[in-house]
Write a structure and sequence with these properties.
Length: about 220
Amino acid sequence: MSHADIEQEDRQCPLCGSSGAATFHEDRFRPYLVCAVCALVYVPARWHVSAEEARKRYDKHQNNPADAGYRQFLSRLVDVMVPQLSLGARGLDFGSGPGPAMSILFMERGFVVKNYDPFYAHDGRLLDATYDFVACSETVEHFTEPKKDWDILVRRVRPGGLLGVMTERRENVADFSRWRYINDKTHVGFYAKHTMEWLAAQYNLRAEFVLPSVVLFRRQP
């Protein structure tokens, strides 16, 4: 499909619904559009890989809970969430992946955490409940329907609860075209700080930008 085939429907932001998104970047695989309202850079749906292709890519992820490097990577989110949690808090790892490790890190700190993933731990009953905290690591960039997916994610957090999101933010990249994050074709949404601030306003959250790739959202009562 030629990038010249971008149509008006492609220019409607899949997160905030605003029309008229502009072309931000193009490579030989797909175009990237940017929303003037929420600042999300996104790949239009017609250029998304299929669910089958996405699953094949996820199956290659090395998410071994025993891997010291992977544990250290996830600890960037866990370490900043734990001091803000009450003893005995119940949590959810949203987008736990093929080898759930985040829940183990939390459980080692004394918390009870369930795993949810649309491919590997697809228990819909977990999405009927709310939790004291939700951890979401390297997942929101995969959201193919971000408005729907963020609705589901935020509503899992009880009022007063904590949502921790880890994803690389695009304002930290000097050259988008050389950013390794766009080389993964299952990455279809790229967030700026303004996008996270828009989400906070939309969902009545208080946002704290604790690390270049980590945002903590407190759901207001």
